[in-house]
Amino acid sequence: MIGQIKIEKTNSPKTKPDQSNLGFGNYFTDHMFIMDYTEGKGWHDPRIVPYAPLEMDPATMVLHYGQAIFEGLKAYRAKDGRILLFRPHKNMERVNISNDRLCIPPIDVDFCIEALKELINIEKDWIPTEDGTSLYIRPFIISTDPFLGVRPSKTYKYIVILSPVGAYYPEGINPVKIYVESNYVRAVKGGIGYAKTPGNYASSLKAQMEAKKKGYTQVLWLDGVEKKYIEEVGTMNVFFKINGEVITPALEGSILAGITRDSTMELLKSWGVKVTERKITIQEIYDAHANGTLDEAFGTGTAAVISPIGELNWNDNKITINEGKIGELSSKIYTTITNIQNGDLEDTLGWTTEVKA
Ligand code: COI
């Protein structure tokens, strides 16, 4: 038994930001959820407390060896007033997949969903309502032993913070320019690529910065061994529509099993569109473009939902996809997923969970 959640409310609530100019990850709500783990005791002391800096010993293990995981999901305020979470079980189950890879003890999925609902309820006035906005939820776990030897920590903190957000990319749903990365790699099979852990994001920064300097929003990651097979795009999963068929790289250990990726595949199947998970080479994309069968390309992720790819640059060979415009299918997937998320469309797939007062 983890115990009752203690609640300590803030005495100084913040002024809420302007909903039309949120950007992504700039603002944080008044409260956060925390619980601790101690070896031999398990997870304990769950509490909702005022949002505040954490005090840490400089030797705290996470600061040195990065033994940590995180998640990202969103809460929406429907027009009828309901508060909706999108597939929260998937995120919490993925916490335990990431935890296992990082030698972090598992969490109790159902307890963490209940705790999340309790936190959201306290912060419900922070859920933005303008089109394209939501309350981004960032659960994360850090290793907290003050110790410099390399081994799994014996203590951890599980924390959830909340951030009202708008679009992830300034481009919004407009197509982005993507640089095909042939030098740096994101992950290899046997590594940590399938876990949602800070190291994967730290290792991606250099390529992202170099691509930016060349005028590209993000990179397309190729496999770490042959630099031939497509893996992910930026921090997102990637899909290509070729000759009416939608193809996405198969999950073989180096790719994150995205929840928007899974939702996109389920939707496409429900619409009768052929979806295939398999290895796909960058050459195949260029060949499809050359013979006129590359219809659309897009990334999927919680933060941006759908991000169409308008241009690819692979070793200075540039191709424009769908005339640099948002594809019909990309647009339909974006509209359907966001409308299920925000309650505008009936959720026939059972993806949303209501947060009740
Ligand atoms: C997502 O697409 O949701 C991500 O993983 C991006 C996040 C790290 C901000």
UniProtKB/TrEMBL annotation:
Catalytic activity: L-valine + 2-oxoglutarate = 3-methyl-2-oxobutanoate + L-glutamate; L-isoleucine + 2-oxoglutarate = (S)-3-methyl-2-oxopentanoate + L-glutamate; L-leucine + 2-oxoglutarate = 4-methyl-2-oxopentanoate + L-glutamate
Coiled coil: none
GO MF annotations in UniProt: L-isoleucine-2-oxoglutarate transaminase activity; L-leucine-2-oxoglutarate transaminase activity; L-valine-2-oxoglutarate transaminase activity
Required cofactor names: pyridoxal 5'-phosphate
EC number(s) stated in the UniProt entry for this protein: 2.6.1.42
Region (Disordered): 1-20
Modified residues (N6-(pyridoxal phosphate)lysine): 196
Keywords: Amino-acid biosynthesis, Aminotransferase, Branched-chain amino acid biosynthesis, Pyridoxal phosphate, Transferase
Pathways involved: Amino-acid biosynthesis; L-isoleucine biosynthesis; L-isoleucine from 2-oxobutanoate: step 4/4; Amino-acid biosynthesis; L-valine biosynthesis; L-valine from pyruvate: step 4/4; Amino-acid biosynthesis; L-leucine biosynthesis; L-leucine from 3-methyl-2-oxobutanoate: step 4/4
Domain of life: Bacteria
Composition bias type Basic and acidic residues, residue spans: 1-17
GO biological process, one term: L-valine biosynthetic process
Family label: Belongs to the class-IV pyridoxal-phosphate-dependent aminotransferase family.
Name assigned to this protein: Branched-chain-amino-acid aminotransferase
Gene source species: Pseudobacteroides cellulosolvens ATCC 35603 = DSM 2933
